[in-house]
Amino acid sequence: MKAQLAGLTILAAIALPGHTNELALVDAEPSAAVMVIDETLLQQRVAELMGVVGLADQARHVSQAVLNAEQATLGQQYQLVNQVSASWAPQRLQQSWLAATPALSEQQRLDILQRLQSAGWQQARQRELAAIHEQGSPAYLDYVQRLRLQTPPAARLALIDELNEVMHFEQLMVRTRTDVYQQLQQVLPDWQPPQQWQANVRQQVREFLLYTHRRTPNEQLQALVALYRQPQLQQWMTGFVNRLPAVNG
User: Dihedral sign, CA of 214, 155, 10, 227?
Assistant: First the structure.
């Protein structure tokens, strides 16, 4: 499971050019200082927030796992690796993310950065990083096993599902795998994707988020959902998703 989820959820920074201080004071007039928000850093921080920077790793992990399981020939491996690398190259994802940047006023940039620097977001980020590290551990597997035996309260599940939706977590995983699976079928004509794989992804995402936020009170989850639900962030994410490699069907 670690290979299945870690590629998407690792919150690493996009290597964007022109990285400068996030807040700079510029003298507009001798008597006034104006807060200027560095757009490059804002793009980087929002990319971290939305978890888009690991899609290249996700595509690589999924394709390599199938190639190994199917004992693909060296020629087939080269062909698929080249195709997946071209479609899901970090540089291409970076360009798509930059192109999807919505028009933001200075105040909107400041508002977004302030929210990203809030204690609630910082705590959530640390919880996600810890959960990524613990995937596959006895504690993680034991928690998942108990989840499957005893379903959490409906209100809790509803909050987790809402968080998944505003993060576009499952959507990104399914979109990435759909494209990689279609490329795999071109290279390995006899191979078929696992049955009900989309439902399995949905379950894995829910279990990961439940584990990540197992000690997060409902009120904090609601606040986190509100953070992700900002219209500008959702517009940004929708534009990015629309720029991902097209899939058939």
Answer: negative
Q: Which pTM was predicted?
A: 0.77
- Residue 156, token pair as written in the block: 């809790």
Is residue 131 within 8 A of residue 208, CB to CB? The reply is yes
φ, ψ for residue 178, nearest 5 deg: -60, -45
Nearest CA to 206 out of 168, 166, 170 is that of 170
CA distance linking residue 33 with residue 28, whole number of Å: 6
The rounded distance, in Å, linking the Cα atoms of 113 and 242 is 24
Task: Give buried/exposed letters for 118-136 (b at 16+ CB in 10 A, else e).
Answer: eebbeebeebbeebbebbe
Question: Distances from the Cα of 33 to the Cαs of 22, 27, 37, 151, in angstroms?
Answer: 16, 5, 13, 54
- Quick one: which of 58, 122, 54, 120 has its CA closest to 84? 58
Instruction: Map out the domains of the chain as residue ranges.
Output: 2-20+34-242
Q: pLDDT per residue over 40-68, tens digit each?
A: 777 777 776 666 767 888 899 899 999 99
Helix then strand then coil, % of the chain, to nearest 5:
70, 5, 25
Answer whether 57's CB lies under 8 Å from 51's CB: no
| DSSP 8-state class, residue 13 | P
Report the range of poorest mean pLDDT among 14-18, 137-141, 164-168.
14-18
CA distance 117 to 22: 11
